[in-house]
């Protein structure tokens, strides 16, 4: 029986989040928190594999207490158990510290049931780095398989998985030993509406909640801000695009107007040479 752990993160909905114009940082309160869309596909794939081969799906997240909501969403998708690690000591973590904390939690989960497969999303929609999955794999010394868009086979008895990895011009088929870590693309599956029994179960479900003291052998210097060598030197929102002008009139009038506009922007062309001279 497979034991699959999907790592999931609660993120602000970046489609509607606002930037704070003074600090140039995300105003997290301005948008609802949702399950990272890539992670929904990670959980769905874990659930599909459970149905195919039998087993258990656990989900793991590091975040503040409201991240319980994201775990419940995963239970709706069909996960069996959820684990939240939450503690002030984890706050301010960059991807290095995040992967360290998650690895410590994975080691603890594995004590009760050894893990065959870890599935992550390709990336988050707020941090966007795609580093956490490979970071966990490196720390656990297991193969990281990124850009996975199909899981062809998982054979626990013989200890291997065969997956398809998306490339720019196609895909490659990779056979890896188990346990391994997959970072999955959105097109790996479609996440359907949840079944009513799963929705009811999710509403009642209480995840396992661990603080740093519940984890074993933790080096506190590798946690949170203290364990984060990344320095964000500056962040800014791109300027809003200026309104354009709709060219009107006859085709000739539109061409004349366009040339007029281009001539007023002549300096834009001068560094490139050629183009301005030809106008
Ligand atoms: C100096 C610094 C301070 C920061 N402080 C904070 C902070 O206080 N609060 C904050 O929210 N962010 C903070 N961040 C952002 C934080 O580094 C990232 O959100 C986090 O490390 C995950 O990276 P990512 O979002 O790029 O994930 P990616 O690497 O893009 O995620 C890939 C996959 O890894 C898994 N994953 C990622 N994060 C988690 C998680 N937390 N739990 C479980 N699985 C996960 C998911 O499967 C995800 O799809 C900080 C960043 C820096 C550089």
Automatic annotation (TrEMBL):
Pfam families from the UniProt entry: ETF
SMART domains: ETF
Domain Electron transfer flavoprotein alpha/beta-subunit N-terminal: from-to ranges: 23-219
Cofactor(s) the record lists: AMP
Protein family (similarity comment): Belongs to the ETF beta-subunit/FixA family.
PANTHER family to which the protein is assigned, alphabetical: ELECTRON TRANSFER FLAVOPROTEIN BETA-SUBUNIT, PROTEIN FIXA
Name the UniProt record assigns to this protein: Electron transfer flavoprotein small subunit
Organism: Paenibacillus konkukensis
